[in-house]
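Typical record was shown:
=====
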Amino acid sequence: MTPTSTVHRVAPKGRGTHRSIASAMRAARDGDEIRIAPGEYVEQLLLDRAVRLLPEDGPEHAVRLLAASPGRPVLEAAAPGVRVEGLVLTGQDPALPTVLVSAGDLELERCEVSGGRIEAGGDASLTLTDCRVAGAELAAVHLNTTGPARLTRVVVEDVEGTGVVIGSRATAEATELTVRRVSGSGVRVRGAARAVLRECRVTGPGRSGVLVEDEASVAALDCRVTETAAEGVRVLGSSARPEDPADRESARGGVLLARCEILRTGTDGVAVSGTGDVLLRDCRVRDGSGPGVSADGESRAELVDCQVDRAHGSGLVARGAARLTAEGTSVTGSRANALLAGDRSEVRMATGDLTESSFSAVHACDDSRVTLTACRISSTPEHGIRATDRAGLTVEGGRITDCGLSGVRIDSAAEARMRGLSVVRGRAGITTESTGTVVLEECDVTDAERAGISCGTGTAPVLRDCRISGTGTAGLVIGERATPSVEGCTVRDAAGSGLVVGPGAEPRVRSVTVARTGKNSLFVGEKARGTFEDCVFAGAGSDGTAFPALHVSAGGAPVLRGCLVRDTEEDVALEKGARPVFDDCLSRDVKNPSLPTGADQSLAAAGSPGGDPRSTARETEAPPEDTIEDLLAELDGLAGLDRVKQDVSSLVKLMRMVRRREEMGLAPPPLSRHLVFTGNPGTGKTTVARLYGRILAAVGLLERGHLVEADRSALVGEYVGHTGPKTSRLFQQARGGVLFIDEAYSLTQYAGSNDFGQEAIATLLKLMEDHRDDVVVIVAGYLKEMEVFVRSNPGLASRFNRTLLFEDYGSAELVSIVEHQAAQHQYELAPDARESLTARFDAMPRDRGFGNGRTARQLFQAMTERQAYRIAELPDATESDVMTLRPEDIPQSP
C-alpha cells in the first residue's frame, strides 16, 4: 500500500464494512486494498481499477467467491495492477472462464480456481503464483493474449481437456508448473506463441505431455513428462528455435528441451513432424511404448548428450524428408532398432552408443542417408548396421561388437563408405551383397564366428587397408561372379581359408598379406579369374593339417604377379583344368615347393581333358626394391609435414652411417630406431610410418619393411594369460618390418584388476629387447598423452627417446590435398574455387578434433556430390562442366 491508499473492508455484517465485494470496488480507487472477511460471496466482479483483494483474517482460502450466473465469470480483470491473493474462486460452468483477464494485467497469488478456466485475451498479461486450478473443461489455463504471462508453482489437475493452452502471440514463462489428471494434452503451445517451461511436471495426460503447433516456440528446461497416453512431446510445426534462457546457448529451431526427462509414454517419447524443429540437450527418454525420438515430414531433430532407454519401438526414427542428428547420445534396450532411417531422411550421429536393441542396431532403408562417426554399437541379436534398398551409409571410425548376425550388412542397391571401423565378435564381420558402390577403408574385423568380410554374388566393393583376424571360417570371401578391388589388406588367423574366391569371380587383389590360416591361404573356385599382385601367403594349414597355400579349382585362371608363399608344407595345388599364371612368384621355407625358390624350377599344371599341357614358371628376380631416392621423393611429395620430412631425412643419414659401419665390421653407435609420433588425427602419421619401414628396408636395416598396425584391442587380452600370447603374435607378424601402435597411451589409461595394459607393455619391451634388430616400433597419439605414456615406464623412456611432431595442416596444404584428390579422380578446380577453399579452411576451428587430411578428403567428396546435383540441372552439360568443381560446390556448414 501507498501512504494515500485506502483499505475497504467487506463482511456480511458489521459497521463500516461493505456487504459485497462489488460495493467495495465501486468505492475503491487505484492503489486501494479490499480486505474480505471469511465467508462465501456470490459475485460477478469487474475489476476495472488497480486494486488488491485479499482475506481480512482467518485461514487462507476461507474467502470463497461463487459465480452469480452460469454464463459469467466470477472475476474479470480489465485494468493494470490488479492483484488477488488467497481467495477461492468457483465458477458454475466448467467450459467457461471462472477468471477472465480482458485487458490490463492480473496477479493471482495463493488462489484456488475451480468450476471453469482462467483465460487471458487481448493484450492482457497474467501472473499466477502458488495457485491451483481444477475441475475445468476444454482447458484449465488458456492464454490467448499478445501480452506476457508468468506461472510459478501452479498446480493444474482434474481437467476434461488440456491443462494449459498458450496461443496467439503470447509470451509465457512457467516455473514449477504441475499438470496431472487431464484428459487432453498437458501443455499446448500454438499460433506464434513463445513459452519457457522450467522445472515443470506433466503426469498422466490423456494425450501428449507437451504439444507444439503452428509457428510456436518452446524452451523446456529441467522438466519431466511421465505416463502419457500419447507422445511425451509432440511437435507439429515450429519457427525459429529459441535460446536457452538458463545458459544463453543459442540454438536453431522451434523447440528446445534441456535436461528434461520423458518417461513411460504411450507412444513416442518425442515426435516431430511437419516442419517441426527440436533440439534435445542432455535429456533422458525412457520406457516409452513407441519410438524414443521420431522425426517425420520435413522436420528436424537434434540430440546432444541424451539417453534413450528401453523404447518399445525403435530408439531413434527418421522418416519422410526429416533430418535427425545426434551427438554424444546413447540408445539402449530398444525393442526394435536403435536407429531406423527410411524414406528420404538424413541421419547424422557422432560419438553415440547403440546397445542391446532387439533388431539391427542401425537400419537404413529406402533412399535414406545415414552418417555415423565414432559410434559404438554392441549386443544385438541381428546386424550391427544394415543398409538396404537404395540407402546411403557413411561410417567414419567406431566399433561394433557382439552381433548375432553380421556386424555390417549392405544389400540390395545400398551404397556404403566405411573408414576406420572396427568389428569385433559376431556371426559375421562385414557382409556386402549390394550392387551399389561399397568402399571399405582401414576397417578391422576380429573374432567373427564365420567369415570376416564377404563380397556377395555379382558385387564389386572396394577394400583398402582392411585387417581381418581370428575368423571362425574364412577371412575374406569373394562371392560368385564378384569383381571387388582389394588392396593393402591383411588376413590372419582364420580357422578356414584366408581368401576364398568363388566360381566365376574376377577380383583385383594387390599387396594383400594372408598369414596363419587353418586351411588354404588362397582358394580359387571353379572358372574364377582375377589378378593377385605383390601378395604374401604365409603359414597355410597352421592348425597342423597339411593344406597347400594356394588351391586353384578346375577352370580357374588367376594371374599372380610378384607374390610370395612361405612357411607352409606345400605352396600350390591345382585341380584338373586349372590354368593359373605365375609371374615373378617365389616360395620360401616351403617343404614341397612348386614355385621357384631360387633355383630353376617349373610348375606342372594338372592335366586337362584335351591332353597334358604343362604350365611353367620361370625363375625371375624379386621385384626391384625401392631406392632411398625414390622413397625420399615420395616423402617430399606429401602435403605439409616440413618438420617431419626434415627429421626423417636426418634419420636416413644416421641409418646410412650405421649400415656403412656394419659393412666395415665396426660396432654401430647406440641409436634407437623406435619412434614416437605425436599429433592430431589425419596428419599423415600412418603414411609416414609406412614410408619409414620401406626406408629402413631400402637401407638394409629391416628385412621387409612392411607395416603392421595395432591398437589397444589388438594387444590386450580379456582374461588372465591372454595378453602375453596376443601381444607376442602381433609382434611376430611385424618381424622384419614396423609395428605401429596408435593411441598407445590407452595401454596405461585404465586401472583395475581386470586391465592387462601393463602386461602388454612388459611383453612388448621384452620382445623389443630380444629382437632389437628385427622390428621397429612406432607409438602414436596426441602430444600430451604420449608424453605421459613414455614417462610412465622407464623401459619405454629408454627405448622411445625420439619424437616426431606432426603439425596440423595449414589451409594451403589442405587445398593441395583436395587438388590431389581431384586429380586422382579426374576433376579440376576452378581458380576461384581454390580461393573459396582456402577461405573455407581458414574458417574451420583447429581444435583437438580437427580431422586435417581426412577433413580435406571428406570435403572433396562433399564437393563432388554437390557438383553432381548441380550438373544434373544443366540440360546440356559439357565435359568441362562435368570435370570442374566450382565455389558453389563447396559446402559452407561444418
Q: What stands out?
A: Residues 245-253, 599-624 have pLDDT under 50 and may be disordered.
